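Posting for a labmate who doesn't have an account.
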Amino acid sequence: MKTTRRLIAEHDLIERALTVLERAVSAIEAGQAPPRGFPAWAVEFFRNFADGCHHAKEEELFFPRLQERGIPEEGGPIGVMLYEHTVGRDCVGRMASAVEAEPFDAEGFAAAAREYIPLLRNHIFKENNVLFKMAERVLTEQDDAEIAQRFSEVEQERATICQMKRYGEDVARWE
């Protein structure tokens, strides 16, 4: 399915960024400064690409179609995914507050990131291995084509934050 493959490709990029974030947090916890500019970039990436683009496509397009096809939100996997998106936004918000603090609140940044990293890794695992498998069973080819088309439209509408190529280059540079 085009839609799940696209979401998985975005997950792969997000997971690479999480690995870089984890290294930066390890440096902070060892008493070292994170790479110059990285904390602000991480907030931008996770706020814009992971949430504003990727999660938005899931919440606005993918999950509603899954619900139409019988996968429940309440008491089901979609409800769990939505809850985890909310918790993740809180973590990124706390990371942003730490970046905006004067001076930089390294301890606060690291604490929020330490909560965020396993949350998002587990979240991605559940989507890739549970929810997307369910989606592939219930979505029709027409559903998939329509969602894929809407994904492209959303990416064009939100061009400044849905830049997988640019963010991929950024992640490669931080790696």
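Reply:
Got it, the structure tokens are right above this. The CA atoms of residues 59 and 82 lie 8 Å apart.
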